[in-house]
Amino acid sequence: MNRVGESSKLKTEKSSTHRKLRRASAVFIAIATLNMGGSVEREGFEDFDHSFENGVCYQSIEFNRDGIAETGEVEYDEIINVQPVTDEEAYEKIRKELSDEEMCVAISSENDKELVEYFILNQDADPKNGVIICNMGWGADLRDVVARREAEVTAKSNPDKQIMVINNAGSGNSSLIPESIMKEMKETGSFISYGEWIYSLLEPELEKYSDNIEIRGHSLGARVAIGVAAAYFANTQNQIKTLNLIDPAGSDDRGFIGVAWGFVVSEGLKLKQYSKESKYNELSQLSDDNIDVSDKNNFKQNYIDLPVVMGKAELEDDLEKVLTAVSETLKIVSPEYSGLNDSETIKSILGRLALSENRPEHILQILLPEDSHAIISAGVGARVIETVDQIGMNDDNNS
Description:
Blueprint: E1 3-6, H1 16-35, E2 56-63, E3 69-77, H2 88-97, E4 104-107, E5 115-121, E6 131-135, H3 145-157, E7 162-166, H4 179-188, H5 192-206, E8 213-218, H6 220-236, E9 240-246, H7 255-277, H8 296-310, H9 315-322, E10 326-335, H10 343-353, E11 362-368, H11 382-390
Parallel strand pairs: 6-7, 6-8, 8-9, 9-10, 10-11
Antiparallel strand pairs: 1-4, 2-3, 2-11, 4-5, 5-7
Helix pairs in contact: 1-7, 3-11, 4-5, 4-8, 5-6, 6-9, 7-8
């Protein structure tokens, strides 16, 4: 059995050197890419208003069992109205749950250096009501004020469900991915083994939720979410209800340089526009760097190895392996101006998967015709991100 306990004694100390190293690495990648003849693809994106004054613009596509895409009208989803500071009692409760004292760590019974750190929010909610498992994007750490705000908004938006938010490998007190698993990932481009490792550590905590589970993932976290869902089904034979993914990388072969360009240059420029225009941008100026780049192994795994894996076109294979694990809805959000994916490629992948006999009831693609991958970044605002997570999940056909 894994041991689960508080991780307050494992606090990670960071210094300004970490931030300098991270910025230096970003500049290095950008220069390397420019020297290879890259160009910034921004045409069209800057023509849109990203204030979210009218909500999030989207178009829902559902794939029937013949693989045919049924495309809805372009709509706007109103930004969720969650203002935790107006409800002091609930706000203080969630803030306590987000404190270091409430952080938990799941430790491997075979190697006590392998561990995953996580939060449980809405702890008083009945486990029978289910859980939302949140896998954050690359580098995210719940000690970061922006990540905490996102978790807070998710908890307030889903008060009847428990919320589990996982710190990524190498962030906070979560250990690095074991070398043997990282080697396999680099060879195959698959995140299934990473998900199996996460599941093996969290299994005792997940037992109490049965099949009433929604797993969410953003970007890198979306690929991890696929692996966790597949492992959960393989070990329990229980399906999860919903797999809710925002722009998972790996739809085509981009390689390390393509992924680095997408993150650092293309999306970096778009994030600046979001930060400037979004009326829901509350805390991005307070965001900190979360990966301990002074550790050479951490730097290598997060800045080199994982981008290499994400640059391989293995998303479709991973999704095929997880279809049986989902009972109700598989949803992928595809921003039109993503620096990591092409929305038409995602559409083709989902159309092929929809033909499977073991598919979930609903397979959805949510197109965001005015947005980019950076819509899940700090400069957009937590309420916008939660709105994107909820699009398509509360419709009558998915209730």
